[in-house]
Amino acid sequence: MSPVEVQQALATYQDELVGDLRTKLGLFQKNLAATPLTVEDLPSELRARYVGRTGQYRLFVYPAADIWECESLGRFARAVQSVDPDAHGTPVTTFAFLRQMTEGYRMGAVYAVAGSRSSPC
CA 20 to 30 Å from 79, out of 15, 63, 105, 112? Predict the structure, then answer.
């Protein structure tokens, strides 16, 4: 490139760089006067996922103990349901299913024993 072409290319580059810098500085200045976000500022998809129609927020609770152990699962499920009896999720429903299955097996054993004693033979 000739010296004139190099100067023109550098001048164009400088102009674009300065323009970009002005834009970024303007954005930084605007952000200095930013206000706190509110729920209304969130995209509608996030609001729909985390805020109910009544305005109540969705709450996620995670166990600190290993819920693959029955005692830990029971403690966690009872603790969650003591705060909100209508709470649901995998640990709570798993605990309810396990209780029902255990009770069903116990009752099945009782019926089996009771039924075997009344055999006609």
Answer: 105
